[in-house]
Write a structure and sequence with these properties.
The complex is a heterodimer of chains A (320) and B (280). Chain A is an alpha/beta fold. Chain A has ten helices and 13 strands. In chain A, a hairpin with a 2-residue loop joins β8 and β9. In chain B, α6 packs parallel to α9 and α12 packs antiparallel against α13. The chains are: A alpha/beta (320), B mainly alpha (280).
Amino acid sequence: MSLGTTTGRPPRGSVNRMIELRDLTKRYGRTTAVDRLTLTVRPGHVTGFLGPNGAGKSTTLRLVLGLHRPTSGTVTVDGTPFADRPRGLRHVGALLDAGDAHGGRSALAHLSALARSNGIPRARAVAVLREVGLADVARRRIGAFSLGMRQRLGIAAALLGDPPVLLFDEPFNGLDPEGVRWVRALFRRLAAEGRTVLVSSHLMSEMEQTADHLVVIGRGELIADESLAGFAARVGPAGVTVRTPDPAALTTVLRAEGGAVRAGADGSLVVGGLAAARIGDLACAGGIPLHELAPHTVSLEEAFMDLTADRVDYPAGGRR
Amino acid sequence: MSTATRPARTAHRTAAPPARFRDLLAAEWIKLWSLRSTYGSLAVITVSALLFSARAALADHRNWPDYSAERRAFFAPVGDAFPEEGWLFVVLAAGSVGAVMIASEYASGQIRTTFAAVPARRSVAAAKVVVLAAVMTAVGALASGGAFWLSQAILADRHAGASIADPGALRAVVASALLVPVCALAGLGIGALVRHTAPAIVTTTAVLLLLPLAFDTRHRWTAAVNHALPVPAWERLVEIVPFPNYDGWVATIPTSWTVFAGWSLTATLATLIALHHRDP
């Protein structure tokens, strides 16, 4: 992936296209949904916005859109609070919830009304419906749509104004595998065009193949804000599983070389601090036969779980 | 696929049209006419207005030969155009259109999509008020004018029909036409405050139809509340000949017009304030 490069269109003059949060705080009664969040979301990237359920992701996106007003702090898009703009679709496109459409209207009527409110020609509504694959059901009532179709409709609405900044809240919910692949490609293309793309999710596995920058929050606080590559590097390899008929001899050899050796499942050894190749070489030199030599890494998912473990609001089976 | 979402070019973005209020009116117009419930409610308004007035006029037409001279002298033909039992349906349907227009938008989550597209919330509220008032006034004029024409044409056969030039006839027609937008705006204001479809309709119905029953006109203070409600005000405006020997308090005609204006204005302000200040 070509990170942060734009296809022939350098960002223009005063338009910075960034989403900037400064000490953003939102409280509902005694609950703090977003806690002094300071963050800059930059153009040219797909930024994954991760956190467990109830971490404050949706609230943050609603604050960005001015749907909710912050208790304190500021949030701007392109240097301006979004709520100060008379019309929004040409500045920010958003899919907040696939259900945010009146079920009694047809998809085309829904988008036509939205387009019209922003002075966008009706032909554009037809074009985005075609782009998201809903052209054949344009005149069907939204109430009869599946969740996946509603997600596509929400994405169509976000694209309507051809905006430089796009927000997607849990866009993968309800999509079939083809839909997931399509959405990923769409997000990458939008970012490659120099747009700012912020995608929230509670699943790292979804973000791993979509985002190139990660923002992780838990209980309304910022936990991580770094590139996907940086996050992966921090995680690093977890160890090497080794199987041998003579574990005692191998353990002695490896410990002598500074390896951390412990017993794994069903007679295997788990070795830390030594690369798989080095372990193989040492075993060979010592004349110890190896039956298995398997390096394994901690998945990003596990790393994400570790990172947010103490900030999960609703852990299954009680708090860890 | 690739052509549909071309990069947001400078030209494209700087060519963005200014924020025009008439675009919001057009959007609300599309939204109103793309819901089936709108057609159903507007059909209820016009059909019940016409059918009940025809039924009342036909009853008087049939019984006319049996009426005494005194009864014929006191007969108010305009009353047949606007029989209360029929116009209660009109009130119910008109109030529902207004309540549904805003409450269903909150209940479905559509309002977040609307405000994300148009962050100027008061402009959205104003566009809803204007479109609703305009459409309902047109429908009210159609229902009221049609009911008057139909009933008087039937009564004319007995030489008992009224002309629009008769005293109070025009007032009754205009008041009945305006009752429709007044009730719709009341529903809109209540819908903006209640924000759930079914409770909004129930509350609107209670305010428009049940509240007048709870405040009689025999006592001064209950009469004051009664007279301040839109349906009693309408009843006063369509009443050509007051009941003889009526012992309750009676509102003046100007007061009743003021009640119409007051409800419209209050409902508009409630909608503007509620949409602007309460986060979806």
